[in-house]
Amino acid sequence: MKHVMEDTLGKILDAREANTVPVEFNIGDKLVFKAQTLYGREKATRIIRGKEYSGRPEVRYNGFDNFVVRWNEIVEVIPND
Q1: Is pTM, for the whole model, over 0.85?
Q2: Pairwise CA distance, residues 5 & 10, whole Å
């Protein structure tokens, strides 16, 4: 059942992201985002640790070292000075 929920949630999130524009960022910048998970939609601030193959930012979040933030989840990028 959990696998079906994850597949369905993934399809919904892919459809939402299809109409968004990529955001400019650098590794080390702070990222404010609202990630949709199976447990809700929480606002979080994390340091960008890398880029995914399609250019989306990766952060440490929810127990993952390489959590990929979708373009439509990004609220703000705070440059690292």
Answers
A1: no
A2: 8
